[in-house]
Structure formats: structure tokens, C-alpha cells
Write a structure and sequence with these properties.
The structure holds two protein chains of two kinds. Chain A is of the alpha/beta class. In chain A, about 40% of the residues lie in helices and about 10% in strands. Chain A has one domain: Thiamin diphosphate (ThDP)-binding fold, Pyr/PP domains (Rossmann fold, 3-Layer(aba) Sandwich). A five-stranded parallel beta sheet of chain A has the order 1-2-3-7-6, with helices on both faces. In chain A, strands 4-5 form a two-stranded antiparallel sheet. In chain A, helix 3 packs across helix 9 and helix 5 packs parallel to helix 6. Chain A is globular. The two termini of chain A are about 25 Å apart. Chain B is built from 13 helices and 14 strands. In chain B, helix 4 packs parallel to helix 6 and helix 9 crosses helix 13. In chain B, the strands form three sheets. In chain B, strands 3-2-4-5-7-6-12 form a seven-stranded mixed beta sheet, sandwiched between helices. Chain B has a five-stranded mixed beta sheet with strand order 9-11-10-13-14, with helices on both faces. Classes of the chains: A alpha/beta, B alpha/beta. At the A-B interface, helix 5 and helix 6 of A face helix 4 and helix 6 of B.
């Protein structure tokens, strides 16, 4: 897919995100906007998958696990736009009886979701399990994850990081959304991650870095990461992003991590985002 | 009275180890994970036989539960093994989100449950695990009573689709269930028939309840002993049929009274058929170091406690 096409999809996904959260006056727009370029590139360009025949086992398909489950607006929008379920269903986000729960879940059987997440720090372990099962099944496809940077404060992440390197889980590509912000403020102030790349290297991972808003760079980095699989080491991509990317008043602050714009703010946001595929 | 034949003496964890090895042979989707307690969990045989399906995760139980949940996505049937304390309380949120809520086919196998873990003391003696696990939607809770039943339960749960908590223990106890009796999840066993009082027990307390029934028999009391090896789903039917006859019940478990088997029984009584109940269990306190049998006596979950509870509940009936 052409870079311009991916960027167009990302613009529509950003519109979906702000409309979804404004619609119910709740949800997490900041991190969602920051990961829109990455997830669109991943789902529309890189992952080998078949949205029309979703199976829980995902045998022969690349798998993606959203570990920072609160960014459901971007996840659901990308899944819907990719064809996992009708785009109009985005209108039910966070409403009673919806398959689009506040955080991802499997119990309402939303196609595209293989694991509940929301309580942070669990997705890397789950992905290691899925990647290990792929090896046992002689399935050559890959497993991808996305984590928040604040999420890395959870101890389980480092249990999993240690395991993946020690046991050579080399069919796994984990990406960190390194936007430097979490609910209470800057990650640096809340609990500094220190030398993040050095930490992953010390744990035995291959580490790549990329600009999470440059589609060309995302493609190049992920393609490079794919060539590094199967060589005995798991791969971590530290992805620099801006929380709230694409909407001027949401950038440069942590305030929009978990709060929704009102109708007036929504209008200002939508004026900054081109409608490319038609709103739901 | 005719006594139940004792076939030998073994620990229930060894039943798990043998069962895991057996089910590993018959079902190649079965995988096993252990958090640095292979010897304690008796997982050596599986590890030797199927090294590529065995995963040593180190002392990282949260990661173990997550990996197990992820493995189910590739169709595997993971059995996790560590002490009951580290299988539940330490990883409750991981079980809640990645196993129970996500409804993944993980078998959480927990050894050294309860106070009979013994000398290690209260830090390791979990008495709250049945309560925590039975509260989780989608979770099935199985507490087999002896070596043979633990082995059979370990084999049987591979054929059940969904999360299971399998609880067993460390001490050597009598073996009294038939060697190859197929384990049926959710179907309680009536071990001794009686008319005066119903004793509903699980785990190690089943044997203690059988011993209690023998003593009561000498006093002219006919106790019915039910092995409620599945706490959830709970076999209401077998309980109700028994108490319609005996009109009173004693629950016996190696667990806190709060949240355990006795609570599950009380829920049935208050909704379906109100009869007096007495509880044999640990009453709102932590354990301590000692031998398993010393601790059962000190903490009030021994044969004599079951006898006393039966005598008391029969009094209340009148």
C-alpha cells in the first residue's frame, strides 16, 4: 500500500477516535491519536491476516496484542476499517451491550480481539505464549505487541522481557509507544524509565527506534525488524510518538490521556482532520 | 460397618505428577509450565518425556499465567504448576483478566494448598484460594481427595474446554478411591451412605470425614459422607438429596470458613432447603509452622472436629 493511502486511513481513524470518545464523553483519545499511524501501517501494510475469517487460534496469521488496552478507540477503528466488523458499530463504543467494551475483551466475541487487556503489563507474557505456541505448531507467522511507556512500570513486563530473551522467543516484535506521558504527568516525573533502550538491550533484546508518525520510517523499521526474527532474540521497537498527535490542543500535554472532548472541542478537532473514507 | 478399603498411602501432588505424564502421552496439545518447583510439583516425569512441551519459567508466576493464556491461542492446553499460594493470590489479576475473563483453556494446578504444607509456615499456607477462584466467572474449581482421584482429575480436565483451578497438597494420606475411576467434573461422590447427618468434604478432609463416620457409627450415628471434589460448578442435586434424608449437614475443608466449600453449601441451604449446618474449617486466622498433622489438630480440621461438629448439628436438628 502507498504511504499516502496509509496516511489517509490514519486521518480517518483519528476522526473516528475523537468522535467515538466525544460520543460517550469517555475514553482515551491521547494515546489513541499517538498510535494511529503505527496501527494503520501495521494492519493495512504489514500484518498477514484475514479479517473476513477471524479465528481465535489465528494459525498461519500474524497476531497482534494490544497490551495498553485503554487505547481501544484507535484499536477498534483500525479493526473496523480493516474489515473485522462493520464500521457503524464504532457508534456503540462503551455503550451498554456493545461488543466494543471500554477495554478490549473476548467475551462479547468482537472479531479481531484475542485477549482482554486493560490491567497493564500482561500483554507481553500473553504474546510470548502465543509466539511459543506458533513455534510448537511450526507456524512461521509472527507475533506483534504494543505497550505504553508508562506500562513498563509494571513488574510483569520485565519478567516477560527476561523470559523472552532467555528462551529465545525470536518470532516476537514488541513496540513501545514512547510518548513520555501517563495519567499523572510526565513519565520522567512519575517514575522515570531511565535509559530505556539500554534496559531492553541489557535484558537481551534487539532494539530498534523509530518515529511513530513517519509512515515511511515505520514501514522500514518494521521490515527491518522482520528480517531480524528467527535469529535467537526477541525484538523491541522504541517508537517515539506524541500523545494527542493530529489535534493541536491535545498535543504537548498529558491532559487528554483519559478525557474526552466536548462537542465544541470535537468540532475544532474535526476541522483539523481530513475525512478520507467517510465518517461512520 | 463395612469400611472403605485403603489401597496405600501417597501425596496428592504425586497423583498430579502421574496424571500429567499420562495426559501428556494421550494428548499432544498438553503443555506444562512450572515456576521453579518441578520437584515439589512432581512434574519431572512430564519434563523428561516431553522436553519440548515443558516450559521452566523461573520464579515469575505472573509471567507464567500470561504465557499459559497466550499458548491457548495456538490451541495448546497449558497446565501451570506452582504452590497454591503463588498460583492464586500472587497472580489473581493475571488469572482474572488473561484467563477467566478471556475464558482461556488454562489449567491452574496448585500444590501445597492449605495448612498441611506444614513447616514453611503461614507465608506459604494459603487458606483463601478456593474462595478467590470460585468467585471468578468462567472458573471451575476442583479439589480432589486422594492420590488416585487427583491423578484422574488431572487427566480428565484436559478434555474440558475452559479455565480450571485444580487444588492438591503435600502430605502423605490414605488412598481410598478406585485406581482407574474416571473423574467427572461437577458430580459429587457419595462414599458412605447414612441417615442421621450429611458430611460434605473436599480434599484431605474427605479422609478425615470417613474416619469421623466410623467413630460416629460406634456411637450409633449413621453419617453420610459426600466427596464434593468440585466446588464449582456445585453439585446441588447430590447435596439436596442427602439433606432431605438427614436434615442436617457438616462441611469439612482445609480452607478458611469464609469463602470456602461451606459457604457454597450454605448458599444452597438458604435458597432451597434450610437445615442446620456446622462448619469445619479454619476460622479467620493465619497458619503457622508445624507438621501437617499437628497443624490439622491445632487449627481444628481433624477427625475429632468433624465428629464434634456432627454431634452438635444433630443436636440443633432436634
Amino acid at each position: 500500500m502507498e504511504i499516502q493511502e496509509i496516511e489517509n486511513i490514519a486521518s480517518q481513524v483519528r476522526r473516528d477516535i475523537v468522535r467515538m470518545v466525544a460520543n460517550v464523553s469517555s475514553g482515551h483519545p491521547g494515546g489513541s491519536l499517538g498510535c494511529a499511524d503505527f496501527l494503520c501501517t501495521l494492519y493495512f501494510h504489514l500484518l498477514q491476516l484475514d479479517p473476513s475469517h477471524f479465528s481465535m487460534d489465528g494459525k498461519g496469521e500474524d497476531l497482534f496484542f494490544l497490551s495498553n488496552g485503554h487505547i481501544t478507540p484507535v484499536f477498534y477503528s483500525v479493526l473496523a476499517r480493516r474489515g473485522y466488523f462493520p464500521v457503524n458499530e464504532l457508534d456503540t463504543f462503551r455503550r451498554l451491550g456493545s461488543r466494543l467494551q471500554g477495554h478490549p475483551s473476548t467475551d462479547k466475541k468482537l472479531p479481531g480481539v484475542r485477549m482482554a487487556s486493560g490491567s497493564l503489563g500482561q500483554g507481553l507474557s500473553v504474546a510470548i505464549g502465543a509466539a511459543t505456541a506458533k513455534k510448537l505448531n511450526k507456524d512461521k507467522s509472527l507475533v506483534y505487541t504494543l505497550h505504553g511507556d508508562g506500562e513498563l512500570q509494571e513488574g510483569q513486563i520485565w519478567e516477560a522481557a527476561m523470559y523472552a530473551a532467555a528462551k529465545k522467543v525470536d518470532n516476537l516484535i514488541a513496540t513501545i509507544d514512547y510518548n513520555g506521558k501517563q495519567i499523572d504527568g510526565n513519565v520522567e516525573d512519575v517514575l522515570s524509565l531511565g535509559s530505556l533502550a539500554q534496559k531492553w538491550i541489557a535484558f537481551g533484546w534487539e532494539v530498534l527506534e523509530m518515529d511513530g508518525h513517519n509512515v515511511k520510517e515505520i514501514i522500514q523499521t518494521l521490515e527491518k525488524a522482520k528480517t531480524m526474527t528467527g535469529k535467537g532474540k526477541p525484538i523491541c521497537i522504541i517508537m517515539k510518538t506524541e500523545m494527542g498527535k493530529g489535534i493541536d490542543y491535545m498535543m504537548g500535554t498529558h491532559k487528554w490521556h483519559g478525557s474526552a472532548p466536548n462537542q465544541e472541542q470535537l468540532k475544532i478537532a474535526l476541522d483539523q482532520l481530513k475525512e478520507t473514507l467517510g465518517d461512520y | 460397618m463395612k469400611k472403605i478399603e485403603v489401597l496405600g498411602n501417597k501425596d496428592t501432588r504425586s497423583g498430579f505428577g502421574e496424571g500429567l505424564h499420562e495426559v501428556g502421552k494421550s494428548n499432544e496439545e498438553v503443555v506444562a509450565l512450572c515456576a521453579d518447583l518441578i520437584g515439589s510439583l512432581k512434574m519431572d516425569a512430564f519434563k523428561e518425556a516431553f522436553p519440548n512441551r515443558f516450559f521452566q519459567v523461573g520464579i515469575a508466576e505472573a509471567n507464567m499465567i500470561g504465557i499459559a493464556a497466550g499458548m491457548t491461542i495456538g490451541g495448546k492446553i497449558p497446565y501451570t504448576g506452582t504452590f497454591a499460594n503463588f498460583s492464586t493470590g500472587r497472580v489473581y489479576d493475571q488469572i482474572r483478566q488473561s484467563v477467566a475473563y478471556s475464558n482461556k483453556n488454562v489449567k491452574i494446578c496448585a500444590s501445597h494448598a492449605g495448612i498441611t504444607l506444614g513447616e514453611d509456615g503461614a507465608t506459604h499456607q494459603i487458606l483463601e484460594d478456593i474462595g478467590m477462584m470460585k468467585m471468578l466467572p468462567n472458573m471451575t474449581v476442583v479439589v480432589p481427595c486422594d492420590f488416585n482421584q487427583t491423578k484422574q482429575a488431572t487427566i480428565a480436565i484436559a478434555d474440558y474446554q475452559g479455565p480450571i483451578y485444580l487444588r492438591f497438597g503435600r502430605p502423605v494420606m490414605p488412598i481410598f478411591t478406585p485406581e482407574n475411576q474416571k473423574f467427572q467434573i461437577g458430580k459429587a461422590d457419595i462414599l458412605i451412605e447414612g441417615t442421621d447427618v450429611t458430611i460434605v468434604a473436599c480434599g484431605h478432609l474427605v479422609w478425615k470425614s470417613i474416619e469421623a463416620a466410623y467413630i460416629l457409627f460406634e456411637k450409633g450415628i449413621r453419617a453420610e459422607v459426600i466427596n464434593m471434589h468440585t466446588i464449582k460448578p456445585f453439585d446441588e442435586k447430590t447435596l439436596l438429596q442427602s439433606i432431605q434424608k438427614t436434615k442436617c449437614v457438616v462441611s469439612a475443608e482445609e480452607h478458611m470458613i469464609n469463602g470456602g466449600l461451606g459457604d457454597s453449601i450454605a448458599q444452597v441451604l438458604t435458597q432451597k432447603l434450610l437445615v442446620p449446618q456446622e462448619y469445619v474449617g479454619v476460622n479467620d486466622r493465619f497458619g503457622e509452622s508445624g507438621t501437617p498433622m499437628e497443624l490439622m489438630t491445632k487449627f481444628g480440621i481433624d477427625t475429632s472436629n468433624v465428629v464434634d461438629a456432627c454431634l452438635k448439628v444433630i443436636q440443633r436438628k432436634a
